[in-house]
Amino acid sequence: MSAFLELTESQLDALREIGTIGAGNGATALSVMMGKRIHMTVPEIKIIPFTEVTEALGGAEQVVAGLFTTTTGQAPCNILFVLPIESARVLVDILMGRPLGTTAELDALDKSALAEVANVVSGAYLNSLSSFTKLDFIPSVPAIAIDMAGAILDTVLAQAGTIGDHALLLETEFSAIKEKITGQFFLLPEQGSLEKILESIGVTG
Amino acid sequence: MAKIIKIGMADLNVAKCPDILQTAGLGSCVGVCLWDSITKIGGLAHIMLPYSTQARSVGNEAKFADTAIPLLVKQMENLGALRQRLVAKIAGGAQMFSFYSGNDIMRIGERNAEAVKETLAKLKIKLLAEDVGGNYGRTIEFYTETGKLYIRTINVGEKII
């Protein structure tokens, strides 16, 4: 039995609400940075058994850019920003001011530009989470990996594995329609953090 | 015709010749393949964490090295494999992200591989070959007919162990 399965409907609603505002801030920050309009979906809370997690996210062997940030503070969380490799290339083209379709292999500078995107989006998301909960979230520098989606996810989910058999993913999709960029943003609370977040906003049951 | 049996994260399964056991996208997780060369029975576990003793709740036994491997052995025995003949090949245990600050999650791949090797040694199962570590993901296919393990990656090609 997983702790995540015991969440009540009102707790799930509260998390969805936090996610909506956090992601809204993230999308705005990204829009400003890119000078493009960025759309986002209403966050979805996914509670999935590990055995099904990679298939649920579009296939374990899909090549993606994964940007991973950990936070320290009273309620440590992990943040994963996933972009299909095609989207990552387009994003880099825009950031570096190159004509769309130029970037093939991502070099060190391109990767650090992507890490900066993750930094800006995560920072905006965490700011709103922090003002909601009055808890501190201190983000690490984002780490980047370009590889199979499954390989990136299993590393990030390993920590959640010590709690139960399910992953709780607060997922938001970002997109820039004209440029065909899509990305998924996940917030993964560590052991005990989910309870602290819910407690701080007064939704304990 | 050989069937391909897919195994998810924190999952395990067994198969008979000529079927193929596959798990896709191993990052810090470790794929443990066991084989009985006479009955040609194979088993594969996609292990996520080192020891069940360090977890708050055990739940799914296939998740941990110390519980998954004995469970895999048992299921292979139920299918007709002989424990004394079992040999192992392992792959995975990568460090997908490198942070500037030392964070425990970053060493999870290494700790998984260590725990798998210790558990195999405890069960007296010989480790024939391994492809562990590095900073890249792996998809593996284990052929019950030959006991060969095919390893595919995005950036560093393919190999057979």
Automatic annotation (TrEMBL), chain A:
Gene3D superfamilies: CheC-like. It comes from the Bacteria. Pfam families: CheC (PF04509). Residues 11-47, 111-144 form the CheC-like protein domain. Keywords: Chemotaxis, Hydrolase. GO terms for molecular function: hydrolase activity. CDD domains: CheC_ClassI. PANTHER family: PROTEIN PHOSPHATASE CHEZ. This is CheC, inhibitor of MCP methylation.
From TrEMBL, chain B:
GO terms for biological process: chemotaxis. It catalyses: L-glutaminyl-[protein] + H2O = L-glutamyl-[protein] + NH4(+). It is an enzyme of class 3 (hydrolase). CDD domains: CheD (cd16352). One of its GO terms (molecular function) is protein-glutamine glutaminase activity. Keywords: Chemotaxis, Hydrolase. Its EC number is 3.5.1.44. Gene3D superfamilies: 3.30.1330.200. HAMAP family: CheD (MF_01440). Belongs to the CheD family. Probably deamidates glutamine residues to glutamate on methyl-accepting chemotaxis receptors (MCPs), playing an important role in chemotaxis. This is Probable chemoreceptor glutamine deamidase CheD.
